[in-house]
Specification:
There is one protein chain. The protein is an alpha/beta fold and 168 residues long. The chain contains five helices and seven strands; from the N terminus they run H-E-E-E-H-E-H-E-H-E-E-H. A seven-stranded mixed sheet has the order 2-1-5-4-3-6-7. The longest helix is centred in the N-terminal third of the chain and has 22 residues. The chain is globular, with a radius of gyration of 19 Å.
Length: 168
C-alpha cells in the first residue's frame, strides 16, 4: 500500500515537471509583464501584429461567434473604439470551431473595429476564464488590466485609465 502512494507521488511530480518544461519559453499574459506578441489574420483581410502597435494603448478583446455575451458587448466596444481613435482596439475570435461562422458573425454584428481569427494561439498566450475577456496593454507594451466578462463604455474607460492614467 505504501509503495502505491510513493509511486503516485512520483508520477504526479513527473507530470508537473513535464508540464512546466512543456511551457518552455512560451510567454503568457500577466498583469505587469510585457504582453506576449501575436500576429493574427483579420477577418476583412490583412493582419494585426501586437508588436506593430508600439507607443499606443491596445485593447484586446477575446470573443467567439457562439458567445451570447460577446454579441451583447460588441456594440459598446465599437462605440468606444469610435470615440477613442487614439486607442487601438482589436477583437480576436478564439475557440471558434468554423472560420465561416466567425466571418458571418462579424458581418452580422457590424463591429467597427478590427476583428481577427486566432491564427497565432492567442488563447494560449492570453488565458481567460470563459468569454468574453479583455486585456489592456499600455503604450510601452506592458499588460496593465484584465477583465473577464462583458465590458461597456465605463468598464473600458476604467481599464484604459489603469493602463495609461491621464497626465496631471
Amino acid at each position: 500500500m505504501r509503495l502505491t502512494g510513493v509511486f503516485i507521488a512520483i508520477v504526479a511530480v513527473g507530470l508537473l515537471v513535464g508540464w512546466l518544461i512543456g511551457l518552455g519559453d512560451a510567454a503568457v499574459a500577466e498583469i505587469g509583464a510585457p504582453a506576449p506578441d501575436f500576429d493574427v489574420e483579420l477577418i476583412d483581410g490583412g493582419s494585426f501584429a501586437l508588436s506593430e502597435t508600439s507607443g499606443t494603448t491596445v485593447v484586446i478583446n477575446l470573443w467567439a461567434s457562439w458567445c451570447l455575451p460577446c454579441r451583447d458587448e460588441i456594440p459598446a466596444i465599437s462605440a468606444y473604439a469610435n470615440e477613442n481613435p487614439e486607442i487601438t482596439v482589436v477583437g480576436i475570435a478564439v475557440d471558434d470551431p468554423a472560420e465561416a461562422d466567425t466571418r458571418a458573425f462579424a458581418l452580422e454584428v457590424g463591429a467597427t473595429y478590427p476583428l481577427a481569427l486566432d491564427t497565432d494561439d492567442v488563447t494560449d498566450k492570453y488565458p481567460h476564464f470563459g468569454l468574453p475577456a479583455t486585456y489592456v496593454v499600455d503604450s510601452e507594451g506592458v499588460i496593465r488590466a484584465f477583465h473577464n466578462g462583458v465590458v461597456d463604455d465605463a468598464t473600458l474607460t476604467a481599464l484604459v485609465a489603469e493602463a495609461d492614467p491621464p497626465a496631471g
